[in-house]
Amino acid sequence: MTEDYINSYTTYEAQFSATIIQTDPIILSDTFDVRIDFAWNSSDLAKGNAAFLKIKYFVEDYLHQAIFTHKAATIDMMNVKNKIVVFPFVPTSDIIAMLLHSKLNAICHEHIEIIGITIGSKYSNPKMSYTYTDPE
């Protein structure tokens, strides 16, 4: 028995700027290009569109101008007014991609499935990006 399989998905591309607290502590400002590949899981167009708008808001509004830090960082963030995103490890491109994959799937899993996240620093030299896909 042969089943037809169509590998079809949508791609959303955006850019956001963030301040990253690395180790030692080193503070870096960077601009990220992000590509999100996703599949529509819902036949309800309104709910699918609402789920997409959640993705768009999270990337373009929540992450933009946020501070990315980690649990072991020694910098006090008590008086900082920016949005703060705490990562379990030092926020490098691979960790950021994995976090985005998990978070965006949690936000809109009923209507959209995140297939893959590609993220790259606008200022890295050489220009490289990191892609994370979940094998399931």
Summary, kept brief:
This protein is an alpha/beta fold. About 25% of the residues lie in helices and about 35% in strands.
Protein described:
By secondary structure, the protein is of the alpha/beta class. The chain has two helices and six strands. Strands 4-3-1-2-5-6 form a six-stranded mixed sheet. A hairpin with a 5-residue loop joins strand 1 and strand 2. It starts with 9 loop residues before the first strand and ends with a strand.
Number of helices: 2
Low-confidence stretches: none
Q: Structural class, from secondary structure content?
A: alpha/beta
Strand order of the largest sheet: 4-3-1-2-5-6
Straight-line distance between termini: 23 Å
Percentage beta strand: 35-45%
Q: Say how many strands there are.
A: 6
The helix fraction, in percent, is: 25-40%
Mean pLDDT: 88
Gyration radius, to the nearest Å?
Answer: 16 Å
What is the N-to-C order of secondary-structure elements (H for helix, E for strand)? Answer: EEHEEHEE
- Shape, please? globular
The largest sheet, given as strand count, sense and whether it forms a barrel, is:
6 strands, mixed
Structural features:
alpha/beta; 136 residues; 6-stranded mixed sheet; globular
Give the helices and strands, then pairings.
Layout: E1 10-21, E2 27-40, H1 45-62, E3 66-70, E4 84-87, H2 93-108, E5 112-121, E6 129-133
Parallel strand pairs: 1-3, 3-4
Antiparallel strand pairs: 1-2, 2-5, 5-6
